[in-house]
Amino acid sequence: MIKVAVLGYGTVGSGVVQVITENQEIVAKRSGQEIQVKYVLDLRDFPGDPIQEKVVHDFNVILEDSEIDIVVETMGGTKPAYDFVKASLEAGKSVCTSNKELVAAHGAELIQIAKDKGVNFFFEASVGGGIPVIRPLNDCLTADKILQINGILNGTTNYILTKMSREGSDFDAVLKEAQDLGYAEKDPTADVEGYDACRKIAILTSLAYGKQVDYEDIYTEGITKITAEDFAYANKLQASIKIFGSSKMVDGKLYAMVAPQMILADNPLFAVNDVFNAICVTGNMLGDVMFYGKGAGKEATASAVVSDVVVATQQMGNNVQILWDADKMEVASMDDMENRFFVRLAGQDKAAVEAAFGPVDYVEAGIEGELGFLTGKMKEKDFNAKVSAMDGFITRIRLGF
Fold first, then answer.
1. Could you tell me if 8 and 125 are in contact, meaning their C-beta atoms sit under 8 angstroms apart?
2. How far apart are CA 264 and CA 223, in angstroms?
3. More confident residue, 141 or 241
4. Cα 314 from chain centroid?
5. Do 299 and 338 form a contact (C-beta atoms < 8 A)?
6. Which helix (H) or strand (E) holds 70?
7. How confident is the model at residue 52 (pLDDT cuts 50, 70, 90)?
8. If pLDDT is split at 50, 70 and 90, which confidence band does 370 have?
9. Sign of dihedral through CA atoms 192, 194, 195, 197?
């Protein structure tokens, strides 16, 4: 029997206990032996809940118990999660986590400690909730050179943008609705400003190229400035606006960003709506592979965590190789990234537009006093120089990464 300790009895932690308990038979069959939750670490007590008899408030109880083979970390954040996870690995216990902040900041270090100790550090649920993408990147796409990753990595923002597109509503109104429905946090900053997606694309990119990509180096832009008027133009183009975490290799340089993009109907991510997530990985031999599903939620995320527990049980005494070194991989300057841009200007001066940008594709959305157009491909620094010299600039959205 494998005995597990769960750190944190919140949404995901309670889901992990539920999955292990309710699916005990199938989990045991797939892992090769019975898995049992021995401890739950939490600051709170849960009177009336059967879990109460397993609740402990001192992490050292778990750390010093030689019966605990696997620690499941669902606390979130980096303090005290990092200290607890590191100590668990150093004590010879495998760790499975859903904590994207922890993985993005300390993934390479924790993977190395697990390797040195002959245990495992797994983090499937840290990106995409229940969508299996970490293990396929590590195990199934190893013969391919990864050229590009482009993902809808946050369900909250995808829900908001989907509603704005369908209903022509403004951002503030849809955000409030999302909060009322429980799809958005009371403080939605991490989601709507793109920080959540930034950590996730940093993890995926680090795995794709085997080196540390610091999320602080990735250009990040949220959705708070997207308006109903932007969607009016997108609809005329039969396009959609979504926020993506993206990375790609061009001439040996890594470019990465999190930002809204306008995508056309032929993009495989065009139809990914509401709270769903999807990640498209492009390999030099395989081409495009898309991973799609629920990117968040108690059951989906807990299922991914328990799948890691099953693999950790199967691999007990054997470290599974994960290529993610601590050597830092530099992210190239956004100035040199090439994109096409959709632009909105106040006024109708087509001559000035064409003098600055050359031939463009105009988009007529019936918005009085505005001019909308698509540029050709150009470097970000060149676009910024051109648009800064023009009067009446309203906004710009990049066209499909």
1. no
2. 18
3. 241
4. 27
5. no
6. strand 68-73
7. very high
8. very high
9. positive
Sheet holding 35-41, edge to edge: 55-56, 35-41, 2-7, 68-73, 94-97, 121-122
Cβ neighbours of 117 (radius 10 Å): 17
**265-295 pLDDT per residue, tens:** 999 899 999 999 999 999 999 899 999 998 7
DSSP label at residue 251: T
CB 219 within 8 A of CB 256: yes
Q: What is the token pair recorded at 93?
A: 């216990």
> What are the residue numbers of the active site?
200
Cα 175 from Cα 188, distance rounded (Å): 9
Are 372 and 362 in contact by the 8 Å Cβ rule? The answer is yes
Is residue 262 a contact partner of residue 234, using CB atoms and an 8 Å limit? Answer: yes
CA gap 24, 290 in Å, rounded: 31
- Structure tokens belonging to residue 376: 């050709």
Residue 238's nearest CA partner among 374, 93, 54 is 374
Identify the pLDDT of residue 296: 76
Question: H/E element holding 258?
Answer: strand 253-264
Q: What percent of the chain has pLDDT over 70?
A: 100
Dihedral angle sign, alpha carbons of residues 3, 5, 9, 14? negative
Amino acid at 106: H
The model's pTM is: 0.95
Q: Work out whether the CA dihedral 135, 138, 143, 144 comes out positive or negative.
A: positive
| Residue range 349-370: mean pLDDT, rounded | 95
What's residue 401's pLDDT?
66
| Six token digits for residue 243 | 């926020």
How many whole angstroms from its chain centre is CA 72? 20
The answer to whether 227 touches 344, Cβ cutoff 8 Å, is no
Distances 30 to 25, 306, 307, 308, 312 between C-alpha atoms, Å:
9, 11, 9, 12, 11
Sorted by sequence, the CB contacts under 8 Å of residue 164 that are 6+ apart come out as 170, 171, 174, 226, 228, 231, 241
